[in-house]
Amino acid sequence: MARPAKIEHLSPQERAAFGKAARQRVPLDSHAEFVTTGRSDPIELLESQAVTRVPELVPIRYGRMLASPFSFYRGGALVMATDVARTPNSRLQVQLCGDAHMSNFGIYASPERRLVFDINDFDETHPGPFEWDVKRLAASLAVAGRDNGFSSKKRRQIVLATAAAYRTSMIEFAGQGNLPVWYSHLDIEDLLVRIGDQLDAKRRGRTQAALDKAQSRDSIQALAKLTKTVDGRARILSQPPLLVPLEELLGEQEAQVAYVALGSLHESYRRSLQWDRRHLLEQYKLVQVARKVVGVGSVGTRTWLLLFEGLDGGDPLFLQAKEAQASVLSGFVKTSGLKNQGERVVNGQHLMQASSDIFLGWQRQEGPDGIQRDFYLRQLRDGKGSAVVEEMVPAGMRYYGYICGQTLARAHARSGDRVAIAAYLGSSDRFENAIADFAETCAKQNVRDHAALADAAASGRVVAQTSI
């Protein structure tokens, strides 16, 4: 994980000088560069990831990525990592999200039961240069804008607002003390106050309805949606291939052996939690496990749904155990130093998020094939919600990008040298203009990459299942 930079205890003036020196080495305008020559074949990159995934689920991944250029972009984190690794590097390190596209920002319930807005996906988190996350976010907005039919002028305005929000927020954080930065967060109620005068009655109603829906997404709601009652007990529904109970996946006899093994594995996960949360977890017993397909880029990695029971059947807890493979950034930057990839994800999430799931932890598990894999665990649903990108209008996407830029700056300010980064970015608009140029070039390349996947599916090079 990202550690405090070596200049942490230098004076603010010395830290600012470090940032300005980095600007001399890597000018702001250079971030517009996107090298199209000598690129790796994007289909080969996707195929390289398929090797370690569940074979029968890989076609679903390809099918979901084919849905649109934006869907391809969501699933193509490795493609993007390969591209940004060839761009100028500021060497101003932070803890990166690693996959900071716009759909990986959203709302969820904090432990205090308040809805907050933050980054909500950390599968690819890894230390690296701050601008890689900014480019991933900015390009996602350009890609989504193209999909939604926005003009090039509107798309540029959206990206400029996002990058400017990042730059000005980082400057603001640079002027704050360590604790104020650490405690900073975006509460949804505060956000609604800020944007209230920008919404008419209809939009306010739709916004409130979306928030109410998100707040209702918890283990009780998941119990009603994902289970049925059999002999008085809740049993996870069978919806193959997207949701398959362990008994159906392995057979009853092998499943019982697996449940015995899960007892000791549950204990190793428990030890990764804060002590009081271990105590809470001990009050639940494991009832059933099922394999679940989630996301776009994650499809094919092993993800398990774990149903626990508390006082009785009406007191459920759903946890999601998701396989954590090496970050897509790991081949391009210095290693994080952690041997457990689940721990990498958890530590990165704690470092970047203002408030994290109380059950966020990790474990290592040996599968039926005898291979040990790393996992991280969290609650399946806890007030989680995200914007519907396809329904956004230009003004809405512009403001959404703005708050994503602010949120990303806050996450980076917690782990990196915010004073140096702010000094590097400076007071002009050169950085956001360079990022806007990069984003548009990247979006055009993404269209070609999406088409390449469609060609690969049409030729039979890859098998894509588009009906799921």
Mean pLDDT score, rounded?
91
Q: How many structural domains does the protein architecture include?
A: 2
What is the tally of beta strands?
A: 13
Radius of gyration: 22 Å
- Residues in β-strands, percent: 5-15%
- Runs in which pLDDT lies below 50 for 5 or more consecutive residues are 1-5
In words, what does this structure look like?
The protein is of the alpha+beta class and 468 residues long. It has 2 domains: 12-213 and 388-459, no CATH class; 219-379, no CATH class. It contains 18 helices and 13 strands. Strands 8-9-10-11-13-12 form a 6-stranded antiparallel beta sheet, sandwiched between helices. It has a 3-stranded antiparallel beta sheet with strand order 2-3-5. It has a two-stranded antiparallel sheet with strand order 1-4. The chain is globular. The two termini are 36 Å apart. The model is unreliable at 1-5 (pLDDT under 50).
